[in-house]
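Ligand-bound model needed. zinc ion.
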Amino acid sequence: MISKVSHIGIAVKNLEEAIDIWTKLGLTVEGIETVESQKVRVAFLPIGKEVRIELLEPTSEDSPIAKYIEKKGVGIHHLALASDDVINEMQKAENNGLQLIDKTPRPGAHNASIAFLHPKAMAGVLLELCQEKHDH
Ligand code: ZN
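Prediction:
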C-alpha cells in the first residue's frame, strides 16, 4: 500500500552549493551517499520524521540527472511515494495501464528498493515507488 511521501528529489549541479541554500531554511543534512546505479551523489535533509528532501548531483556526464539538467535545468526532479511492497505497486500500476520505466525494482539510496513510473503516464510527474528499509 502506498502510505506516505518518502522524499522529493531535486536535481542540482553542485551538491555543496545546494546544501548551502537548503540549510539556510534551518534544515540539516542527515547524510550524503553515492548511489552508483544511478550515478548520483545524494544529500538527505529530513523534514520531520517521515519526509526528506534529496539533493541529487550527477557523478558523471551520462548520469540520468546530468541528462535531466541538460534538458530541463535544475529543480524538482521526482516525487517518491513510499510503499511496503514495491513489486506489488508496480504490478498494480502496470495492470492499470501505467507505463513503468523499471521492469524490476532497483537499489536506491538508503538501501531502498525503488522503481520509476514514466512522467508521460503520470501527467508530467516522474514518480518513484520506494520501499524503504525499516531499520530506524
Ligand atoms: Zn528518489
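The chain has a mean pLDDT of 94.
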